[in-house]
Protein backbone atom coordinates (compact mmCIF):
# COMPACT_ATOMS: atom_id res chain seq x y z
CA UNK A 1 0.00 0.00 0.00
CA UNK A 2 1.23 3.46 -0.77
CA UNK A 3 0.12 7.07 -0.75
CA UNK A 4 1.59 10.37 -1.92
CA UNK A 5 0.80 13.54 0.03
CA UNK A 6 1.53 16.94 -1.52
CA UNK A 7 1.37 20.40 0.05
CA UNK A 8 -0.89 22.61 -2.05
CA UNK A 9 0.99 25.87 -1.67
CA UNK A 10 2.65 28.43 0.51
CA UNK A 11 -0.52 30.32 1.45
CA UNK A 12 -2.01 27.74 3.77
CA UNK A 13 -1.88 24.27 5.26
CA UNK A 14 -3.82 22.32 2.62
CA UNK A 15 -2.59 18.98 1.32
CA UNK A 16 -3.74 16.52 -1.30
CA UNK A 17 -3.24 12.78 -0.93
CA UNK A 18 -3.21 10.43 -3.89
CA UNK A 19 -3.81 6.89 -2.74
CA UNK A 20 -2.27 3.79 -4.23
CA UNK A 21 -5.66 2.94 -5.74
CA UNK A 22 -5.62 6.28 -7.60
CA UNK A 23 -8.07 8.30 -5.50
CA UNK A 24 -7.59 11.85 -4.27
CA UNK A 25 -8.35 13.14 -0.79
CA UNK A 26 -7.82 16.74 0.28
CA UNK A 27 -6.93 17.79 3.82
CA UNK A 28 -6.65 21.19 5.47
CA UNK A 29 -5.77 22.60 8.85
CA UNK A 30 -7.78 24.71 11.22
CA UNK A 31 -7.54 28.48 10.68
CA UNK A 32 -5.73 28.91 14.01
CA UNK A 33 -3.02 26.57 12.66
CA UNK A 34 -2.66 28.35 9.32
CA UNK A 35 -5.29 26.39 7.43
CA UNK A 36 -8.36 27.73 5.68
CA UNK A 37 -10.87 25.04 6.74
CA UNK A 38 -11.37 23.88 3.13
CA UNK A 39 -11.24 20.13 3.81
CA UNK A 40 -11.20 17.62 6.67
CA UNK A 41 -8.32 17.60 9.12
CA UNK A 42 -5.90 14.66 8.83
CA UNK A 43 -6.94 13.34 12.26
CA UNK A 44 -10.61 13.49 11.22
CA UNK A 45 -9.74 11.30 8.25
CA UNK A 46 -7.93 8.88 10.54
CA UNK A 47 -11.07 8.61 12.69
CA UNK A 48 -13.28 8.25 9.61
CA UNK A 49 -11.00 5.51 8.31
CA UNK A 50 -11.43 3.57 11.55
CA UNK A 51 -15.20 3.88 11.27
CA UNK A 52 -15.16 2.84 7.62
CA UNK A 53 -12.89 -0.13 8.29
CA UNK A 54 -15.05 -1.42 11.12
CA UNK A 55 -18.36 -0.80 9.28
CA UNK A 56 -16.96 -2.68 6.28
CA UNK A 57 -16.27 -5.69 8.51
CA UNK A 58 -19.70 -5.57 10.15
CA UNK A 59 -21.59 -5.40 6.85
CA UNK A 60 -19.51 -8.20 5.32
CA UNK A 61 -19.86 -10.47 8.36
CA UNK A 62 -23.63 -9.93 8.52
CA UNK A 63 -24.06 -10.52 4.77
CA UNK A 64 -22.09 -13.77 5.06
CA UNK A 65 -24.31 -14.72 8.01
CA UNK A 66 -27.32 -14.30 5.71
CA UNK A 67 -28.70 -11.38 7.70
CA UNK A 68 -30.98 -9.00 5.77
CA UNK A 69 -28.91 -5.88 6.54
CA UNK A 70 -30.06 -2.70 4.78
CA UNK A 71 -28.01 -0.06 6.57
CA UNK A 72 -25.03 0.47 8.83
CA UNK A 73 -23.95 3.76 10.37
CA UNK A 74 -21.16 4.33 12.86
CA UNK A 75 -21.06 7.47 15.00
CA UNK A 76 -17.54 7.95 16.34
CA UNK A 77 -16.61 10.23 19.21
CA UNK A 78 -13.03 10.66 20.29
CA UNK A 79 -10.86 12.40 22.84
CA UNK A 80 -7.25 13.39 22.24
CA UNK A 81 -4.28 13.98 24.50
CA UNK A 82 -3.81 17.61 25.50
CA UNK A 83 -0.05 17.54 24.87
CA UNK A 84 1.87 16.72 21.70
CA UNK A 85 1.66 14.23 20.19
CA UNK A 86 -2.09 14.67 20.51
CA UNK A 87 -2.97 11.03 19.97
CA UNK A 88 -6.46 9.67 20.41
CA UNK A 89 -6.92 8.55 24.02
CA UNK A 90 -10.57 7.44 23.91
CA UNK A 91 -12.74 6.42 20.97
CA UNK A 92 -16.33 5.22 21.08
CA UNK A 93 -18.00 3.68 18.06
CA UNK A 94 -21.79 3.56 18.14
CA UNK A 95 -23.19 1.22 15.47
CA UNK A 96 -26.72 1.61 14.13
CA UNK A 97 -27.48 -1.47 12.07
CA UNK A 98 -30.75 -1.62 10.10
CA UNK A 99 -32.43 -4.58 8.54
CA UNK A 100 -35.31 -7.00 8.42
CA UNK A 101 -35.44 -9.66 11.16
CA UNK A 102 -31.85 -9.03 12.23
CA UNK A 103 -30.60 -11.29 14.99
CA UNK A 104 -29.22 -8.91 17.66
CA UNK A 105 -26.73 -11.58 18.81
CA UNK A 106 -25.33 -11.87 15.28
CA UNK A 107 -25.06 -8.09 14.97
CA UNK A 108 -23.23 -7.87 18.30
CA UNK A 109 -20.97 -10.76 17.28
CA UNK A 110 -20.12 -9.00 13.98
CA UNK A 111 -19.12 -5.82 15.81
CA UNK A 112 -17.11 -7.80 18.35
CA UNK A 113 -15.29 -9.77 15.62
CA UNK A 114 -14.43 -6.54 13.83
CA UNK A 115 -12.85 -5.09 16.96
CA UNK A 116 -11.14 -8.23 18.21
CA UNK A 117 -9.97 -9.82 14.97
CA UNK A 118 -10.46 -8.03 11.65
CA UNK A 119 -10.31 -4.22 11.76
CA UNK A 120 -6.71 -3.16 11.27
CA UNK A 121 -7.49 0.51 11.86
CA UNK A 122 -9.13 0.07 15.27
CA UNK A 123 -6.43 -2.43 16.27
CA UNK A 124 -3.76 0.20 15.59
CA UNK A 125 -5.67 2.95 17.36
CA UNK A 126 -6.21 0.70 20.39
CA UNK A 127 -2.46 0.98 21.07
CA UNK A 128 -2.98 4.55 22.32
CA UNK A 129 -6.74 4.84 22.84
CA UNK A 130 -9.30 3.08 24.96
CA UNK A 131 -11.83 1.79 22.42
CA UNK A 132 -15.44 1.14 23.32
CA UNK A 133 -18.45 0.37 21.21
CA UNK A 134 -22.20 0.14 21.45
CA UNK A 135 -24.72 -1.45 19.13
CA UNK A 136 -28.24 -0.43 18.19
CA UNK A 137 -30.33 -2.75 16.02
CA UNK A 138 -33.09 -1.01 14.05
CA UNK A 139 -35.85 -3.18 12.59
CA UNK A 140 -37.27 -2.28 9.21
From TrEMBL:
Concerning Pfam families, the annotation shows: OsmC (PF02566)
- Give the InterPro entries listed for this entry: KH_dom-like_a/b, OsmC/Ohr_fam, OsmC/Ohrsf
Q: Which domain of life is it from?
A: Bacteria
Quote the protein name from its UniProt record. Answer: Putative redox protein
Q: Tell me the organism.
A: Polynucleobacter meluiroseus
